[in-house]
Amino acid sequence: MSDYYRIPRGADWNYGGQKWRLSRSKIDLYKECPRCFWLDNKKGLKRPAGYPFNLNSAVDQLLKTEFDVHRAASTQHPLQEKYGLAMKPAVHTKMRQWRENFEGVDTVHTATGLTVCGAIDDLWVDDAGTYYVVDYKATAKSEPVTELNEPWQDSYKRQMEVYQWLLRHNGLTVSDTGYFVYCTGKPDEAAFDGKLEFDVHVIPHTGKADWVDGVLEEIKVCLEGSLPREGTNCDHCLYRRVLRSEEEQEQGRLL
Questions:
Q1: 3-state class (DSSP) for residue 88
Q2: What angle do CA 83, 135, 197 make, to 5 degrees?
Q3: Of the candidates 112, 119, 98, 105, which has an alpha carbon nearest to the alpha carbon of residue 215?
């Protein structure tokens, strides 16, 4: 068995188990394909994952460390000054928990009884006490990312809106506007010299989290029901369907 892919997951970690929680990423999985979501959360059969993006994780950690310096000093980060944002990195007693994977921000959704959770990257606050969700992103391409206008980036926007929803359910006044600190590595520099240069842009996103409650109710119905139909645009469902067909044909030839 692969060290990176262990299935099925233990029953305690599946829906109905003591350790199961509905993470932000699972909500996005449901939006992408209810069938894959059901197999993951009911049967512990998660999709095979790629290897971790260690460079992206390093950028995340460096940004957290950098913003934490200004958090401790109660000063603005240069990016906040550059973009004219009258806010500072937020100080909160639960910041460490809220940023930790497998802990994060959580709440119980009253209508469904589902425990929903998600780990934020950062939180900024203005003088009025309004909080702003911040998410770090990193990539590498010839042109810097300065806006989120691709269909696949909709998942980033949903991610931020779930975080906003979670923090409001933890008693915070949270703006509809959040910010992506987007770092684009420059692959066309003259030399590497042991370092990777980045263009860094702060990209605002103003959205609405009012879709979350309705989707949670859909998810509850899904989890209580039988295996959903295949996702129409799901590559994983397509792979399984074609694989089954090829295996059946091959077995037929062997008989």
A1: strand
A2: 70
A3: 112
pTM for the model stands at 0.92
91, 129 in Cβ contact below 8 A? no
Average pLDDT over residues 230-250: 90
Tokens of 144: 């810097």
Over residues 126-137, the pLDDT tens digits come to: 999 999 999 999
| Mean pLDDT of the residues in the chain | 94
Ordered by start, the domain boundaries in the chain are 53-224
Place of tokens 């906040």: 80
The overall longest dimension of the chain from CA atoms, in Å, is: 75
Q: Are 199 and 186 in contact (CB under 8 A)?
A: yes
3-state secondary structure of 181: strand
Distance CA 69, CA 75 (A): 9
